[in-house]
Structure to design on (312 residues):
């Protein structure tokens, strides 16, 4: 395991077992009373989120002593979010021949050299905490959400790909697929504020692009048709929601704020703020004048709701 993490940061004391004043002692019963966005007066999103994560870890270590060592080693012993995340990813993705110490140095160097990686991770934490009702805390996302962890590791693999370190990028890609059951090519481009909900079976091809504030559920494929080479994978616009089991094939464009129904097979462009469902997918309202929705969708009840709309 990576060295140098035997003592907690100086800002954390051994008797500081209480979360910040923005949370209450009964929040285990009401997890959504926790704030999901930093207040306007906060110093920075990263500082605020990291403070929340540490407070949640202290609370959980007190309520579940069996987890205290795990929480201390993964969160409380680290002075910053990038070190904690690097440590956690390194231990998750290590193998007998790909050592955690090597991966820790690789992740930490990447986060230190490219500030956009950490800012994207923070945006993802905020997105998951705000959009997913099942996410009870930021620390829960950091520790246990494999979609979040796979996304952070893929961004590092993508950076390695751009640096022409392709053998290492592909080795990391392979470990991500083995450990998290998420297969995202290291050349694929992913925006920030992304939610990969459940994430099992997610496949994203080499030339795919995923925009900002996108939500994608499990068993989604962004693939090629197998008929062409080159730029052959989907381009997903900002604010798009793709339901579970959907397949989007070819170099098609899914417009900003569009929705793709669960189980749909999409082979066509989908205009912004419209909904496509079915196999093969059709636009609700018809191709000539598709019905438009004005709000970027949330995850809850999405598949059932739009299928009901389609069947009317």
């Amino acid at each position: 395991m990576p060295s140098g993490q035997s003592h907690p940061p100086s800002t954390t004391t051994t008797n500081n077992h209480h979360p910040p004043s923005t949370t209450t002692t009964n929040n285990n019963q009401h997890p959504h009373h926790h704030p999901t966005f930093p207040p306007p007066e906060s110093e920075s999103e990263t500082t605020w989120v990291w403070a929340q994560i540490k407070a949640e870890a202290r609370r959980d270590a007190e309520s579940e002593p069996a987890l205290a060592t795990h929480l201390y080693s993964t969160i409380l012993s680290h002075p910053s979010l990038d070190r904690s995340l690097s440590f956690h990813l390194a231990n998750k993705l290590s193998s007998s021949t790909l050592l955690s110490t090597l991966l820790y140095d690789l992740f930490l160097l990447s986060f230190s050299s490219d500030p956009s990686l950490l800012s994207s991770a923070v945006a993802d934490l905020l997105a998951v905490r705000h959009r997913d009702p099942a996410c009870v805390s930021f620390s829960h996302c950091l520790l246990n959400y494999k979609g979040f962890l796979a996304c952070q590791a893929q961004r590092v693999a993508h950076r390695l790909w751009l640096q022409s370190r392709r053998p290492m990028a592909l080795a990391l890609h392979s470990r991500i697929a083995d450990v998290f059951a998420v297969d995202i090519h290291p050349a694929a481009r992913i925006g920030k504020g992304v939610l990969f909900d459940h994430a099992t079976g997610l496949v994203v091809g080499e030339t795919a692009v995923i925009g900002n504030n996108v939500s994608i559920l499990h068993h989604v494929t962004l693939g090629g048709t197998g008929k062409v080479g080159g730029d052959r994978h989907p381009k997903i616009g900002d604010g798009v929601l793709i339901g579970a089991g959907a397949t989007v094939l070819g170099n098609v464009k899914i417009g900003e704020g569009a929705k793709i129904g669960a189980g749909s097979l999409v082979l066509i462009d989908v205009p912004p703020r419209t909904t496509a469902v079915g196999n093969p997918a059709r636009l609700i309202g018809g191709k000539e004048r598709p019905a438009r929705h004005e709000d970027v969708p949330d995850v809850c009840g999405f598949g059932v709701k739009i299928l009901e709309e389609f069947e009317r």
